[in-house]
Q: What sequence folds into this?
């Protein structure tokens, strides 16, 4: 397990409750979906580290984007540039995306790991489209950055746009014939709805459920997958959407 003590080199607010933190971390070779376990404090409060996906990694600059949902992320949001944080990792399997026309489906903060996937695909000249949905139209993150990398980008919102839409309702109306593969990250409810759609191409979910240790030891992240338990932190977090049993 590799622990990095890193200074926050930059901090930006991306929406009213999502912030980005940048660190300088040379010599890692991360794969899409990989994440760091962020130690929120020096002491044991909160006890568990918080998993955060790699949102971007370029020229040794590591970007994490965090949505405030509870105590740990609130405490992280109060850190300032120049302060030091301990990051363990990167964790997660070495998922190698196909170099085929892809569809990226993001919901809310699920855009964070998909931004890194978009960078990864772009660097390999793999064409992809983006479908990105949020609850309210002021909740988009990295909209322009990823929109520019995509061949075609579609943004939908449940509030704030003239037309109320979700990624699932939009997908129902889309012609999906040209895509060889899809990648999705977002709330569990979105992944469940996507699974029900039975997409015509292979689809992969970037799972962001609860973790414990983050490194394969505690079984706290076990998920039923293709008939047996798998650990999201080491066997995932990228798993075939169709193989996940969300009811167990
Ligand atoms: C592999 C992985 C990658 C992740 N990447 C990111 C990322 O890039 N950016 C980001 O903002 N978040 C990410 N998350 C989610 C993030 O880790 C949690 O939101 C965070 O740990 C919550 O900590 P907290 O102390 O603020 O919330 P808690 O006080 O622990 O919980 C507050 C509320 O949030 C809910 N909650 C907590 N954790 C999760 C979770 N994992 N999924 C859904 N609801 C949760 C709880 O049920 C509770 O209602 C990722 C999670 C995983 C497993
Ligand atoms: S979080 Fe401990 S095994 Fe996955």
A:
């Amino acid at each position: 397990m590799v622990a990095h003590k890193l200074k926050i080199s930059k901090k930006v607010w991306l929406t009213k409750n999502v912030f980005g933190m940048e660190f300088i971390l040379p010599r890692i070779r991360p794969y899409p979906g990989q994440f760091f376990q962020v130690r929120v404090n020096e002491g044991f409060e909160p006890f568990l580290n918080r998993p955060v996906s790699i949102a971007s990694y370029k020229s040794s600059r590591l970007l994490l984007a965090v949505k405030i949902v509870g105590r740990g992320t609130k405490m992280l949001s109060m850190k300032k540039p120049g302060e030091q944080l301990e990051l363990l990792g990167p964790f997660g399997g070495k998922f190698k995306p196909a170099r085929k026309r892809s569809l990226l489906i993001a919901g809310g903060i699920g855009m964070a790991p998909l931004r890194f996937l978009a960078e990864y695909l772009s660097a390999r000249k793999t064409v992809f489209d983006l479908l990105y949905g949020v609850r309210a139209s002021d909740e988009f993150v990295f909209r322009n950055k990823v929109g520019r990398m995509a061949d075609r980008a579609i943004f939908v919102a449940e509030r704030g746009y003239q037309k109320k839409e979700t990624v699932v309702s939009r997908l129902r109306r889309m012609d999906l014939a040209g895509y060889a593969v899809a990648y999705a990250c977002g709330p569990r409810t979105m992944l469940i709805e996507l699974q029900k759609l039975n997409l015509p191409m292979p689809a992969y979910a970037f799972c962001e459920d609860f973790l414990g240790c983050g490194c394969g030891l505690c079984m706290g992240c076990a998920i039923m997958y293709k008939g047996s338990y798998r650990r999201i932190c080491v066997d995932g977090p990228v798993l075939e959407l169709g193989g996940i049993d969300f009811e167990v």
